[in-house]
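Take a minute with the sequence and fold tokens given here and flag any structure token that looks odd. Thanks in advance.
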Amino acid sequence: MNAVPPSGNRRRRWPWVAGFLILLIAIGGWWGTSRSKQDAEAARKTTNAVAVVTVKSESRDVPVRLRANGTVTALQTVDLRAQITSTVREVNIREGQAVQKGDLLFTLDNRAEDANIRKADAQVEKDRADLATANRDLERQRELFAQKFISQAALDTVQNKVDTLKGQLAVDEAAVESARVARAYTEIRAPFAGRTGTIPVRAGSLVQPTQNSASATPPLVTITQIDPISVAFTLPEQELPMLQQALRTGNVPVTATSQGGDTAFKGRINFVDNAVDTATGTIRVKAEFANPDGRLWPGMYVNVELAPRTIANATVIPAQSLQNGPEGRFVYAVGADNKVASKPVQLSYLEEGFAVVKGIEPGVRIVSEGAQNLRPGSVIAEADRSNAPATKQGKGEGKKGKRAS
């Protein structure tokens, strides 16, 4: 019996094996190519994503702050001058001294005034003695007239003398008062509490009343009230209705900060001018501040801030999120697929660092930095915030606040 050679079987199987291997290689190449395309597409998408910083809009109460530059002014200031011609006998104060109401500041030579008072007093005493004598004489003449010893004309003469002496007594008593007033002019006292300025006179200086402003001599001293003190500033006329409404409902608190200083002073508005300045379109306002330590000084410039109203439940976003387009202001809102869409908003109030808007709800994710590289439909990726500057959203620490027009 003859056996079949095994080499023939092997030759018949090799084509099948080779074909199977070629098929496996083709399938592997196709899968690798498809995977590479997917990776390339994912890489392309990742490469095209714009790096931005996003935040969520929030809801809170926002005080509408008005800011202005103010000037510290005294509530009262007065130049004290002599009202009589005399010489200064004594200066009772120092330059820059704090004085109280009624304090004696200057004493003038009052010897002539004292002599005039004594003379007037003596004349009054003489008039009273003459009047007493005339009254006694009148009583005797009335008795004689009742007994028909004198005529009515004689009695009238005596009565006229009594009336004349009464009038003379009244005149001389007024002269005494006048002399005392003149005497009071020799003692110059503080009309209110304040601080003294420079003193150009010394003991022995001749002082006299000023006849007219052209020949006015320097005052003896100028007193300026320091506590309380006032700050004058101006506000745009469009803020007047809001300010008036706030004043009708109560006091409007005001904060003043000296330029270059870090101390804030609390006060209240006590004056609004009765007319708008047509040249500048502003209204003049004054606020009063307690100043016991004298840290606010007349003539200083201060930064004034007041908040006459508050926007309740306002939607707040970073100021840099606002974009301007042909159709107005808008923000880029981020969707769940990290694609952005432009959302039109209405600006209600803007302050450095944040803005109050209408048109979006609180909690919406919006682009705060990097919006200049976006278009509607752009894909975004969150940027690394470790090197990004901190925003001022919701802090209200800006230097300028304004209502949107």
In short: Residues 6-48 form the longest helix (43 residues). The helical segments are 6-48, 111-146, 152-184, 240-249.
